Every structure is written in C-alpha cells, then in structure tokens.
C-alpha cells in the first residue's frame, strides 16, 4: 500500500550514478529540494488542473438506479466546455509542514501547503478524524491520470495515525488530514458470507502537494508529484471504539 509514510533517515539523498574515466562508478549526491520551493510549484500545478477539469457532478446530483458513485474526471473542452470546473467546487485547508516531518536535512519550519478536497457525496454516518481507524475504498493517481495504487475492488483498514502495537506506519499527512474531512457511512448490513454493505458512505477527492505525500521519493512514479485520491469512506472508528470491532 502506497499511502503509508515511508520513513527515511535525514541523511539519505537521491543518488545519481556516473562513471569516471577509469570506468569505476561514483555517486553524485543531490540533496532534496526545499519544501518552500516545491510547495509553490505544486500548488500552481494543482490549480491549473482544477481549472481545466471537472467531475461527473450531474450524476451525483441525480443518480440513476445503477449509478456506482464512482468519480469520473474529464477535461473541460469540446462538448464539455460548459462544465463547472473543479476549482469552483473544491474546499481547501492549509497544512503546515516542517523539514523534520519528512526527514529532510534543511531547516524549514511550518511551510504552508494547501490541501484540496471535494465532497461528492456526504456520508450519513459519523465524522472521521485524523486519529481514527478507517475502512475505505480508494484509488491514488498522479494528476496525469497514472494510477499507482487502488483498493476499490477490496476495501481496507487504515490506522491513520499509525500504531506501534500493530506495527503500522502513519498514513501520509495529506491522506490523513483529507480523510478527516469526510463522514463515514451509516447502517452496516452483513451479507452472511463475510462481506457487508454500508449505506450512505462518504465519497470524494483529496488532492495534495508532494510535501503532504512522498516529496522527493519516486515511489509513485515521479518525485515531487502532486497526488489525487478518490475515496469512499465506509467506516470510521475512534480509538475508544476499537475493542468493539464492527469489521474484522
């Protein structure tokens, strides 16, 4: 799962191999870029994406009997030239990140990053928090549409803040803070075969700069890449609820 935070020592940099005249390998160490520099670039890229794309909001407003509540994003052009852009529908929150949060060698403190999120369908259940364990479906992609991780066919549990006892790393900041903007579903119906259905789950998007995700890591296919997550939040449980497992 790509959403987990990759914990790296502060002294590890991106290494680029080159060869000397004697053909013996050498390493040129390139330090990570500054958070403050990348944040501005990423935000401009995200804003351009939001201004030029829309989602199937009309289907969400008037869902047919077979609508699957999946978000479909397309470009505003041609027959879709009159669609309302995502830029007019998303909400935002500023999240401060310091270089120490990402294990970076620079000494930047509280660099502001803008997190964007869209609630396509509000859940009818409880409000999630960044400290919850959540059961959800998700798809992660870069803004060019390249998918790097997906669990829409098989929902999964995430302990958003991480758990030492469960040996799970915390989720990346943007995902953790973004999920906390959504409400979970309501009534849970067990199907008798180990599966269950959740009524009225929360559906939407989370769009984040790389400083709230993997920053210089190329684990998503590209370093310093802004990311987009489509989520369907089924269940959100507080720490106090964990002994009363709804789904095992």
Automatic annotation (TrEMBL):
SUPFAM superfamilies listed in its UniProt record: FKBP-like (SSF54534)
Recorded GO MF terms: peptidyl-prolyl cis-trans isomerase activity
Domain PPIase FKBP-type: 131-237
Database matches in InterPro entries: PPIase_dom_sf, PPIase_FKBP_dom
Catalytic activities: [protein]-peptidylproline (omega=180) = [protein]-peptidylproline (omega=0)
Domain of life: Bacteria
Keyword Phosphoprotein: no
Name under which the protein is recorded: Peptidyl-prolyl cis-trans isomerase
Keyword Isomerase tagged: yes
Keywords in alphabetical order: Isomerase, Rotamase
EC number from the UniProt entry: 5.2.1.8
